[in-house]
Amino acid sequence: MFDRFDLRSIFRAQWRSLSYFGDRGADGTRAVHPDIVARVVLLAVPIAVCGAMWIFDGVLRNATVFLTASTLFSAVLLGVFAQLASLRSRFTADEPTPQDQDQRDVLDESVNHVMAAEIGAIAASILLAVGLGTSGSSTICGPLAWVVSGTLAYVAVVILMLLPNLLYAYTRTNNVDSALSGFGR
Fold first, then answer.
1. Which of 109, 148, 162, 178 is a Cys-bridge partner for 113, taking CB atoms 3.0 to 4.6 Å apart?
2. Is 170 buried (19+), middle (13-18) or exposed (0-12) by CB count in 10 A?
3. Using one digit for the tens of pLDDT, what is the confidence trace for 71-122?
């Protein structure tokens, strides 16, 4: 009944994409090894930010700025998703090559991160709107401020993980010279 609102698949896909994938074998399967560092950073940074806000009794002053930023993030991420979906369709229409599969994998991982960041930005926007609506001022204190800070830290970490993937997809798709791409030596 509420399957349309079940967001677990997005976070499951993001978690699974934080792995190293080997080449495809004759049977079509690939060896998968979790990227432990990326997974730890993804969890540790938001928890550390939330914990620091709690320990130091942090508050969000001028929370309207954070609300504006998280709302803009949400809108921009939807645009990024649309561009990634369009780019991905270019690889689906043609007969795939091994290089195309690498590019598809990068785009698929990027979409997982974009969707997870989108949910984080929407959650932060909702929490900030509730906090601003109930506080009577532009300052949010207490547990709500801690959770919002952790959520925004999560969005920031995901976006930082996403940027190299987007650059890689761009350079591979557009055959950027290795001297200019940042991925060549």
1. 162
2. middle
3. 999 999 999 999 888 888 776 666 667 667 777 888 888 999 999 999 999 9
Rounded Cα gap, residues 123 and 62, in angstroms: 18
Range of 157's domain? 3-181
What's the predicted TM-score (pTM) here? 0.87
Does the CA dihedral 52-58-62-68 come out positive or negative?
positive
b/e for 30-65, b at 16 or more Cβ within 10 A? eeeeeeeebeeebeebbeebbeebbeeebebeebee
Q: How many domains does the chain divide into?
A: 1
CA distances from 178 to 35, 111, 183 (A): 25, 24, 6
